[in-house]
Write a structure and sequence with these properties.
Helices cover 55% and strands 17% of the residues. By secondary structure, it is α/β, with parallel strands linked by helices. The protein has an eight-stranded parallel β-barrel with strand order 1-2-3-4-5-6-7-8, surrounded by seven helices. Strand 3, helix 4 and strand 4 (84-89) form a beta-alpha-beta unit. The structure holds SN-glycerol-3-phosphate.
């Protein structure tokens, strides 16, 4: 299972990279705005900075919603670095664009996916990744993890190569459940990744080991 971090914050991306378990980064226009990154040149430079930090794929989202401009933006983004994955919204023009990018060997991430039918379309168009937003489904009392399970079944039935990128992950149990269901990738905040480290028996056990060692050494 690949771990992506879902942020445009360079400090957090570096911290996750330093941990040694990071496989990539996902961003979106809201996350870029949260970091105060605005204007074409600043946005482009920020993507380059992220690519300099991480080894894996970096999703960079198009703003356009019409076919011609999605293609134009996507080609500019893809040319920045081979790590760039062009993130395209799940709309009719987006599906056409994913098909085009796929035929040109440009990696894509189909975003804002909330149903199995949408995920099936993304796979048929040749998306590299599909991003079902599980947290936002949970927010409206709908089963986000159930969607991961449905997409896994559908993709396995037909051998689709599109990777299931569980997005809008909010906490460590989302990560564990996605791993059980066979999601290829999860993207979430640094806090959810670090929360996987925690167990009170680890803390108390370590304390005991260190105390016993110190006692035996006569300290
Ligand atoms: O990866 C999708 C993500 O950015 C959305 O997360 O927490 O805003 O629903 P959230």
């Amino acid at each position: 299972m690949k771990f992506f971090i879902d942020t445009a914050n360079l400090v957090q991306i570096r911290e996750a990279q330093d941990l040694g378990v990071l496989d990539g980064v996902t961003t979106n226009p809201s996350l870029m705005a949260k970091e105060g990154i605005t204007g074409h040149d600043n946005i482009i430079n920020h993507y380059k900075a992220i690519c300099d930090i991480v080894e894996g794929d970096v999703s960079a989202e198009v703003i356009a919603i019409d076919y011609a401009t999605i293609i134009k933006e996507g080609e500019i983004l893809a040319a920045l670095n081979p790590k760039i994955v062009v993130k395209v919204p799940m709309i009719k023009e987006g599906i056409r664009a994913i098909k085009y990018f796929s035929s040109k060997g440009i990696k894509t991430n189909c975003t804002l996916v909330f149903s199995a039918g949408q995920a099936l379309l993304a796979a048929k168009a040749g998306a590299t990744y599909v991003s079902p937003f599980i947290g936002r489904l949970d927010d409206i009392s709908t089963d986000g993890l159930g969607l991961i399970s449905d997409i896994r079944l559908i993709y396995d039935n037909y051998g689709f190569q599109t990777q299931i990128l569980a997005a809008s992950v909010r906490h460590p149990m989302h990560i564990i459940d996605c791993a059980k269901l066979g999601a290829d990738v999860m993207t979430g905040p640094l806090s959810a990744i670090l929360a996987l480290l925690k167990h009170p028996l680890t803390d108390s056990g370590l304390q005991q080991f260190l105390a016993d060692h110190a006692k035996a050494a006569g300290q």
